[in-house]
Structure formats: C-alpha cells, structure tokens
Specification:
Blueprint lengths: L2 H13 L11 H7 L6 E5 L5 H8 L3 E6 L2 H13 L6 E5 L11 E7 L9 H10 L1 E12 L18 H8 L6 E7 L2 E5 L5 E13 L2
Parallel strand pairs: 1-2, 1-4, 2-3, 4-5
Antiparallel strand pairs: 5-8, 6-8, 7-8
The structure holds S-adenosylmethionine.
The site of S-adenosylmethionine has 21 residues, from helix 1 and strand 2.
Length: about 210
C-alpha cells in the first residue's frame, strides 16, 4: 500500500469518529514513566494523543508523530486548549518513509499496528538509535484483542516481546532489556463494555 493510501486509510479511521476531548494515557506508559525525570520524548503513532498530553503535563517535551493528519491536527488543537502547546509538537509523518530527527530520553510506541506497509523492526531500531544514553524505548503491542476489535482472526500470531526484541536486533553492550512480559488489563470498549486483554510489553534502555 502506498503512503497516499496509508494516509487516506488512517485519516478515514480518525475522521469517522468524533475528536476526543480528554484522551487518556495508556496504562503501560504511566506505570513506566511515573518517577522518571522529564526530558525529551517521542511518541510514535500518537493517535488521539492521550500519551503525548499526559507526558507534556508532567514536564516532558514531546514530539508526537502520526501518519494521520486528522489525528495530528486534533492533537495540536488539544495541546493548545490544555495549555500544553509549548510542550507538544505534533507532526504528520509516515514512519515507513522516514524517522524523525533528534535525540530522546523516551521513545514510546503503543499499539503501532497497521494493515498498511510498515517495517516495524526498522522503525523500532531507528527509535533505539535515537535514544540518548540512559534513555528508554517502550514498545507496547497487543497480545490479544478485545471482543469488539475488528481483528478476530483466531489464527493471529501476536509476536512476543522477546520476538520483537530479536527483530530489532540491538547490540547488548549498548541496549539492555529492562522489561519483557505479557501483563493483562481490563479494556473498556464501545458502550462501556469491558474485557480482559493482554499487552506485550518491551522496555529497552540505552546504556551508553
Ligand atoms: C492502533 S493506533 C494506536 C494509537 C495510539 N498510540 C494509542 O495507543 O491509542 C496506530 C496508530 O499508528 C498510526 N500509524 C500507522 N501507520 C503509521 C505510519 N506508517 N507512520 C506513522 N504513524 C502510523 C495510525 O495513524 C494510528 O494512529
């Protein structure tokens, strides 16, 4: 799928639903980052922007990237209305084509899944290289799907955190694995429906 088609696909996803007034951060982000000193953060596939706004509210300087211009424009407006416009830079970019410049203390990628072309391992490898010494890369993937998800293929393989780490293929002298597990949580879906789902969590730290 071309970049044009991928942009149209994801713009369509966001345009089909109303803008979120107060998007919430992902649980794995808050549990990982609470207690860390703020710095420069990069959010890959920021979507509605709950993670970017939460980070900015805690003093982080956030670059939030998404292929969907609709999501980026909404996040920019939300950051302004939350008084966080000086801490959030939202950028429309196809990570399949290029990676944002800069060095970061935190890079997060929550549910960066797409039916369009995306070399995720290459993106996550670039993310690991964009870390400053001491910086962390948090990758949170689906380990199962909720009953209301469009994805209900019983044969779907959800790569484990260990498989994701192997795909990124980083030198252990420079990057250490701080966390690789599959915790469960209660997800809330349309109409307030709830279900237990599994996350696949990989947390890497750049040591040098
Ligand atoms: C499943 S959503 C997750 C959104 C958000 N991180 C969250 O936790 O709710 C995946 C996001 O990745 C974005 N995305 C998909 N492919 C992308 C690409 N090639 N470059 C940048 N963003 C992409 C989509 O627009 C969408 O916002």
């Amino acid at each position: 799928m071309s970049t044009t088609d991928a942009v149209a696909f994801w713009n369509g996803v966001y345009a089909a639903r109303p803008a979120a007034d107060d998007p919430q951060p992902n649980a794995r982000l808050t549990e990982t980052v609470t207690g860390l000193p703020p710095g420069a953060a990069l959010d890959l596939g920021c979507g509605d922007g709950g993670d970017a706004l939460w980070l900015a509210g805690r003093g982080w300087q956030v670059t939030a990237v998404d292929i969907a211009a609709v999501a980026v424009e909404r996040l920019t407006a939300l950051a302004d209305s939350h008084g966080l416009g000086d801490r959030v830079i939202a950028v429309q970019r196809d990570l399949h084509e290029s990676f944002p410049p800069g060095g970061f203390d935190l890079v997060c990628a929550h549910y960066l899944h797409t039916p369009c072309d995306l070399d995720r391992a290459a993106v996550l490898r670039a993310a690991a290289h964009a870390l400053r010494p001491g910086g962390r890369l948090l990758v949170v993937d689906h380990g199962s799907t909720a009953p209301w998800s469009w994805q209900q293929d019983a044969g779907t393989h959800f790569p484990s955190p260990q498989e994701v780490a192997a795909g990124i293929d980083l030198a252990p002298e420079t990057w250490t694995v701080e966390r690789a597990d599959a915790p469960r949580r209660i997800a809330t879906g349309p109409g307030g429906r709830t279900a237990q789902v599994t996350d696949h969590v990989l947390l890497l730290r750049r040591t040098t």
